[in-house]
User: Fold this.
Amino acid sequence: MGWGDMILNVIENKFRLRLPLPPKFRWWLSHKSEIDFWDNYFKNGGLHWKANYELKFDPQLRLQDELASLLPKNRQEVKILDVGAGPLTYVGKVHQNLNISIEAVDPLAVYYDKLLNKYNITPLVRTKSGSAEQLSLLFPANSFDLVFARNCIDHSYNPEKAILEMLTTVKVGCYVLLAHIPNEGENEGYHGLHQWNFNVRNGDFIISSKTGEVNFTKKYSSGCVVACSILTKDNVDWLYTSILKLS
Ligand SMILES: C[S@@+](CC[C@H](N)C(=O)[O-])C[C@H]1O[C@@H](n2cnc3c(N)ncnc32)[C@H](O)[C@@H]1O
Assistant:
């Protein structure tokens, strides 16, 4: 845990309150704990996720079906953006019918580069520095055939803006795909970067926090089509949210 997290926890636990801090400031106070997590992850060869750790170094890893199924059918060259990728992208590198190029971004990429150097690791895809909320500063609009984010937009400081930026960078007629564990803010006691909950209610995609909620499906129904499903992987239920960009 970083000093920012630690001081905040001590104050909020001692006085049993939650300070009304802007999410971006709370995010900044907590980001060191994410870097510490990855340091520990490399030190221990992937911690509890050793099998998945090995896969991240496999240049022949097949593109996962849930991503491949959302790619446009009429192209041979496809560009995928992995947002909040961490130091090593999860995205599979090969597909039997497609040439895939992958870009990866993460706001902590500068720190991850230091960790990769420390552990003498060369990634298959080098993660570039950038937060989901600012993707349009990094990439032109309508650049990617698929924009993917796993276990990270609920770590962001403005998830609604982050998803809208993902929609800006994906091409019209293509998909944004989100994969998150439902209810992470609640599950993690709103500590660290976990300020948000992603859920499905009556088929709608809902983003909530300690202070409010947004029905993303209804709010943005004029520009996109949102579909939610639960997929169980490694005994964990994941909420997969696909968002088709209409215009
Ligand atoms: C649990 S890791 C997941 C990494 C990777 N997606 C995976 O599935 O292995 C969460 C990641 O979210 C990133 N993150 C935090 N805030 C973000 C933001 N505003 N935009 C994009 N990514 C963010 C963190 O830096 C961290 O690398």
In short: The chain is about 30% helix and 30% strand. Residues 49-245 form a domain with the Rossmann fold fold (CATH 3.40.50.150). The longest strand covers residues 170-180. The first helix runs from residue 3 to 15.
